[in-house]
Amino acid sequence: MAEKIKIALKRGASCVGCDIAIVNFNEELFTLLSVADLVFSPTLLDVKYDDLKKMPDKSITIGFYHGAVRNSDNEEFAHIMRDKCQILIAYGACAHMGGIPGLANVTDKIAIFKKVYKETFSTVNPDGTLPEEKSLDKEGHELTLPRFYDEVYALDDIVDVDYYVPACPPTSDINNKILTVVKEFVEEGKPLPPKGSIIASEKTLCDECERKRSGEIKVDRLYRIQEIAFDEEKCFLEQGIICLGPATRAGCGAVCTAANMPCRGCMGPTASVTEQGASMLSALASVYGMTDRETELSEEDIEKLMMQIPDPLGLFYRFSLPKSQLGRVVKERVE
Ligand code: SF4
Ligand code: SF4
Ligand code: SF4
Questions:
Q1: Which residue's C-alpha comes closest to atom 4 of ligand 1?
Q2: Ligand 1 pocket, 170 CB below 6 A?
């Protein structure tokens, strides 16, 4: 029997949903554990950060880092995982592209602290005390907190990454794909995919989606899903409901559209583009015939249609803002 490999999971700025996604390997988790030992996972094992620090460099075969990088602790452990792991995987949309935490790049640290600690409605903090990197407790002991950054980063903005596993969180289809790659590598010595690969599909989500398309689209109004009694089998876009399928990479199994929810784009941009939001805007213009119907639609009509999209930045760049051309809306870095 081939020698088992060692795997480690470490979270950065993460909701921990990606750890749960690993548990969602379900019975396949046992298949994974038949070829790999889990040597570090603060969520799933009783381990301490020092345990990871003490491991020899490159002693872990594959490290999964999930979550974005938004403070000094996330950054320190991104470097430690890079040092300890032969192969480092950016697991989930946050590590891949900045994800939902990356939407914080529309603002900055000062505004976030003000909102959370001074204008808070959920925390009792009458003095509006802000977290300090260093402070003293009542007995005079020094307490430290990680430094909160002004900007949110994807993992490869900080360290070299070998592979990317997209989605929020990665679905069982994607996990099974990783499992196959890892098993074939361990048991048959098959080479791993080329460095930098995204473990997903080269197609767009629309290719994977089973909703019916007629090809005839004439929409004069856009709807939020709760505003319309929609056809449960028909393409969302054809019904005037925005679905990011045309601008999103396939590989998740189109789980959301199959469950009657439009795609929100967590797999990131398709293989042929880098800019998911701009790609979706251009898909919308073409799907709704704004370019062909230029003579029919006045600029005012087009503007009226586009104004029906609430929070376009949050919709089109929900998972990818730090990796987009927009990148950072607030430019100055405050630490
Ligand atoms: S990708 Fe999604 S599930 Fe994973 S840590 Fe980020 S927000 Fe959570
Ligand atoms: S736009 Fe959405 S609903 Fe329509 S085919 Fe593409 S993924 Fe499916
Ligand atoms: S359908 Fe869209 S939002 Fe849902 S998992 Fe797939 S890529 Fe993500």
A1: 18
A2: no
Contact between 211 and 261 under an 8 Å Cβ cutoff? The reply is: no
Domain containing 169 equals 5-101+151-188
In this structure, which amino acid lies at residue 297?
L
What tens-digit pLDDT sequence spans the chain (335 residues)? Answer: 678 999 999 999 999 999 888 887 777 888 888 899 999 999 889 999 999 999 999 999 999 999 999 999 999 999 999 999 999 999 999 999 999 999 999 999 999 999 999 987 777 888 888 999 999 999 999 999 999 999 999 999 999 999 999 999 999 889 888 888 988 988 898 999 999 999 999 999 999 999 999 877 777 788 889 999 999 999 999 999 999 999 999 999 999 999 999 999 999 999 888 889 989 988 888 777 665 555 566 677 767 777 888 888 899 999 999 999 886 665 554 54
Whether residue 243 is found in the same domain as residue 230 = yes
Nearest ligand for residue 267 CA: 3
Which of ligand 3's atoms lies nearest the C-alpha of 251?
A: 6
In 3D, which of 268, 263, 277, 266 has the Cα closest to residue 311? 277
pTM of this structure: 0.91
Give distance in angstroms: CA of 245 to centre of ligand 3.
8
298 and 220 share one domain? yes
Burial 116-136 (b: 16+ CB within 10 A, else e): eeeeeeeeeeeeeeeeeeeee
Q: Are residues 165 and 278 in the same domain?
A: no
The CATH number linked to 70 is: 3.40.50.700
Domain membership of residue 126 (yes or no) is: yes
Q: Which ligand is nearest to the CA of 96?
A: 1
- Whether ligand 1 lies within 6 angstroms of the CB of 320 is answered as no
Phi, psi of 196 (to 5 degrees): 95, -5
Residue of 201, 211, 233, 267 to test ligand 2 pocket, by largest number of atoms within 8 Å of CB: 211
In a domain, 200, yes or no: no
Question: What would you report as the CA-atom Rg of the chain, rounded to the nearest whole angstrom?
Answer: 22
Within this chain, do residues 89 and 184 fall inside the same structural domain, yes or no?
yes
264 pocket-lining for ligand 3 (C-beta < 6 Å): yes
Q: Whose CA is nearest to atom 4 of ligand 3?
A: 256
